[in-house]
Amino acid sequence: MHVAANESHRRAQSLPLSHLPNGNAALSADMAARLEKAFKKFTRKELLDMQAEYDAAQASKRMRRPMPRLMCPVSDDQSQQH
Q: Which residues does 29 contact at the CB level (< 8 Å), separation at least 6?
C-alpha cells in the first residue's frame, strides 16, 4: 500500500502545469505553494480558495442538469390499489 501511495504521489507531482488551465487537474496544496513562490502574485491560500470556488461552481452546474427518472418496480399489492 505504501508503494502505491508513493507512486500516486509521484505521478501527481509530475503532471504538467498546462493541466491546470486546461481543466484536466485540480490545484493541489503543493502546486499552490510552488505557484506562490514562483509568481508572487497570489498567496497559497488565495489560489486554493479559487480552486474551491471553481469546484463548487462545477458541482452546482452538475446539480442543475436534469436527473434521469428512475423506474421503480411496482409490487402486486401496489398495482391492485391503483
A: 44, 48
The Cα–Cα gap between 19 and 12 comes to 11
Instruction: Measure the CA–CA gap between 24 and 54, rounded to whole angstroms.
Output: 13
Burial code of 7-31, b = ≥16 C-beta within 10 A, e = fewer?
eeeeeeeeeeeeebeeeeeebbeeb
Q: Are 11 and 28 spatial neighbours (Cβ–Cβ below 8 Å)?
A: no
Q: What is the mean pLDDT of the chain?
A: 77
Asked whether the whole model's pTM tops 0.70, one would answer no
